Amino acid sequence: MQRVLTRLSILLGLLSVLLGGVTVSAANAADPTYRVLNNATGGSLLPQGYGNSSADGIYMYAWNAAYTYGGDQWNFEGSYDGYLIRNTKTGKCLKPGGPYYGKTYLTQGTCNHTPEFQWTLEQRAGLYKLTNVSSRQVMTPYYGAGLNEVVVLEPDSNIAKVWWSIDRI
């Protein structure tokens, strides 16, 4: 039932984007909150510092969900070509960062409607592939082999590590 509600909420957000009238706003108590878990590792999407740093440019991790201290909670806000994904503790949105061993690390920055902050969601069997509108690359743990890996962007390989569950909290 929870996954059905999650899917319905995301679908309604997408419809809002298509119909217009969506603005960027700070997360508030009325916004649905989600946990984003990697399919291959089980790691929960978490900013460096457990959400206690609002600095731009910090790494994102696929961290052990038992030890995230509430820093792994996200809002999905409709935007022009997809969604802004905002951390509820930092108030910052996901975007591509800089080079990280041949890939691009995922980071956070002050939210705006530019393509680098926008993400599309492709659904399959209750899982989602999150693709950055600007880079056209997918979000994934670096190796996809275990917990606590840096999350990066890479070309879509369509393997297990590029799929995530988005669970309403």
UniProtKB/TrEMBL annotation:
Record's keyword terms, sorted: Signal
Domain Ricin B lectin: 72-142
InterPro entries with a match to the protein in the record: Ricin_B-like_lectins (IPR035992), Ricin_B_lectin (IPR000772)
Gene3D superfamilies, per database record: 2.80.10.50
Top-level taxon of origin: Bacteria
Transmembrane segments: none
Signal sequence interval, chain numbering: 1-29
Pfam families linked: RicinB_lectin_2
Protein name from the UniProt record: Ricin B lectin domain-containing protein
